[in-house]
Amino acid sequence: METVLSISNLTKHFGKIKAVNNLNLEVKAGQVFGMLGPNGSGKTTTLGMLMGVVNPTAGNFKWFGQEPTHEIRKKIGAVLEHPIFYPYLSGQKNLELNAMIKQCDPANIPQVLDLVELTERKDDKYKTYSLGMKQRLAIASALLNQPTVLILDEPTNGLDPMGIAEIRELIKKIAAQGKTIILASHLLDEVQKVCTHFAILKRGVLVHTGPVDEVGRGSETVEVTAEVENLNDILLKFAGTSTINREDGTFQVSLREGFKSKDLNKFLFENGVIASHLVTKKKSLEKQFIEILAGA
Amino acid sequence: MLHLLQIDLKKLTSYRTFWVICGLYFITLAFATASGMEFLKWLARTFEDFGQEINIDRIPLYHFPDVWLNLIWFSGWFKIVLAIMVVISVTNEYSYRTLRQNIIDGMSRSEFVLSKILTNVLLSLMSVVMIFVIGLVTGLIYSPSQAYGNIFQDVEFFIAYFLEIFFFLSYTLMMGVLIQRAGLCIIIVLLSQMIELIITVNINEDVPWLVNYFPMKSLWNLIECPYPRYAFQEIKDYLDPLNVAVVAAWTGVFNFITFRKLKKSDI
């Protein structure tokens, strides 16, 4: 697969603070790449460097294998932090201005306005827009030049649940067109739902990178309830049991490598116990995230 | 180049404040420069002995070629209005954070500065054209001699006038980029003449030759006040190449600092 972005030893210091420290990362074409990390972990600073607004202290990065220039930035759609437009201009005029800056055809404007469902409000001044509309206009502006790469920084920040769902659908729609998306967020659930790959930053250092699919792999946890007194003892007898936790009246059984939930179910049945509740729990990104951060 | 100018004009032409300030500038400039004779008449009516001492009709305020230098020197006072427009235009880019978004969208930092400088050039050229037209019209009305030689004598002062406006707008743009806050920047631009005066007064005894190279002073040297000639005093009615060079050099320095500052900073 073609490499869209390669970052090597990228570093940014603000005085004594090491905002980003020796970052190495690769993003390939077609990936939806999630950048995770607590607040202040250097996500926005990294994206700022990639988009030319923050000067790196050391290191470099390449877009499409080339040295970064402003011409390359025109082919990348980016929304960093929050939407930024001229408040006294209408949505339409703001997009016309961006089309001039990106030197692309203004004929794309109606199409992107349609995509983000802002056509009705296009002639109203930007300052009259709600936060959700501002976010959507920002995405429209990022899509204006039909970019192959899209950078979104906290695109659902401050939105209501409806707005979050809308933006998420929009991202999936855009990803389905084969675009590469780099998504910075601290909403793990969001990343798990839309991303294919992810990286975790902590205090400017990369602590993990890999595909999202792998998160669920490894040992399984099974949640069991049954109407028997000595369920705990029975579960302990099962060969595949690694640990048992009791939570809110259910038993959380971590299985050893090679054992599946159906093995447990079969074991219980053979021992004359019929489970009233048995759920295989995939490890969530959230759990893994906290584990990785704790370990780093 | 034209493309960059178009981008900056697109930002400004839908901005009401821009029209208000530019409107005020060009309207007051036009009325103030065109009503010199009316002003003299008013003086004659108000102060009785004024008209007796001098016959106002014999003051060749609008006669070719006097009209050019008279109007150009007087118009210089109004440049502060344009400067305030420039401050607002550039500090808005910081307070709205649109400078950052412009760069993200694919403008280079130099292109951004260039787009602002080109607007300054345009505003300076518009001032030149405006004063040229007013001078021509008033001159044709009041001037007894309309020989070509007289009309186009001294028009080289328009080079100086263009430089004066462009120098000051470049200075303001630099201050805007360095200070980034509209209010503070306007105050400092308004006070810069005063601040320079305080410095020059204090060093005048030690290094008097240096004073002429200070930025605001170099502007005063470029176009000297022409009115003393009506009190039978010598005035400098030619352009001194050294003065032009000093003003042009300062203009270059201001714009260079603007470029440097934007290149180096995180935005």
Task: Describe the protein.
- The complex is a heterodimer of chains A (296) and B (267).
- In chain A, the strands form three sheets. Chain A has a six-stranded mixed beta sheet, sandwiched between helices. In chain A, strands 11-12-10-13 form a four-stranded antiparallel beta sheet, with helices on one face.
- The longest helix of chain A is centred in the middle third of the chain and has 16 residues, at 161-176.
- In chain A, α4 packs across α5 (131-143).
- Chain A is of the alpha/beta class and 296 residues long.
- Chain A has helices at residues 43-50, 70-73, 91-102, 109-115, 131-143, 161-176, 188-194, 231-237, 261-270, 285-295, and strands at 3-14, 17-28, 32-36, 58-63, 76-79, 149-153, 180-184, 197-202, 205-211, 221-226, 241-247, 250-255, 275-281.
- Helix content of chain B is 75%, strand content 0%.
- The mean pLDDT of chain B is 91.
- Chain B has 267 residues and is mostly helical.
- In chain B, α6 (79-95) crosses α11, α8 (109-142) packs antiparallel against α14 (241-264) and α13 (215-222) runs antiparallel to α14.
- The radius of gyration of chain B is 21 Å and the shape is globular.
- Chain B has 14 helices and no strands.
- The interface between A and B is medium-sized, with 29 and 25 residues.
